[in-house]
Q: What sequence folds into this?
């Protein structure tokens, strides 16, 4: 349940759970087969989270299994040290997935116990730290899905709507519109 991201030369993992919750950030040179080294700490322990960011900054949306949160941390991937506050998501959540490109990130599939909140999309501009803004809604409400992004769009896949789903949909950064979901090969989840 840890969160991962990478720069051009290093891989990073943060938070997670193994008999207790963690707030540590560890790094390792991508070409190295050695051990992970301590890089710093997030501002709080997290159960899981989602990471995205630029070539120099990892953005971690922190998710707690025991209590909903909306905190977003940033980690400077060029210099070891503790995370600092980036801003807040629009709602407290215990589930979120995120993806993006070097300039924008999309946070989706959040669940704050309010039912239809699992269709909400948040947007972060990486130009400067700040709170998320609304980026519209998904066509279908689902939790526990995954996301990946390139320079044009994010792809949202899998999830749970009372049973694991095999739907795949895309969203362009320019329009904020999602297409109709397409079926995959079977139900999948990020868990």
A:
């Amino acid at each position: 349940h840890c969160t991962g991201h990478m720069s051009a030369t290093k891989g990073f993992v943060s938070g997670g759970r193994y008999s207790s919750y963690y707030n540590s950030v560890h790094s390792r040179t991508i070409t190295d087969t050695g051990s992970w080294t301590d890089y710093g700490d997030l501002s709080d322990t997290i159960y899981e989270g989602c990471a995205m960011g630029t070539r120099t900054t990892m953005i971690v949306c922190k998710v707690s299994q025991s209590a909903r949160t909306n905190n977003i941390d940033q980690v400077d991937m060029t210099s070891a040290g503790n995370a600092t506050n980036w801003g807040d998501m629009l709602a407290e959540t215990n589930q979120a997935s995120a993806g993006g490109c070097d300039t924008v990130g999309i946070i989706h599939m959040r669940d704050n116990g309010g039912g239809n909140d699992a269709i909400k999309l948040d947007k972060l501009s990486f130009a400067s730290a700040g709170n998320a803004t609304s980026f519209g809604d998904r066509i279908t409400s689902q939790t526990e899905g995954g996301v990946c992004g390139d320079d044009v769009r994010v792809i949202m896949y899998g999830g749970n709507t009372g049973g694991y789903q095999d739907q795949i949909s895309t969203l362009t950064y320019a329009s904020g519109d999602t297409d109709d979901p397409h079926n995959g090969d079977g139900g999948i989840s990020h868990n």
In short: Confidence is low (pLDDT under 50) at residues 181-191. The chain is about 0% helix and 55% strand. The first strand starts at residue 3 and ends at 6.
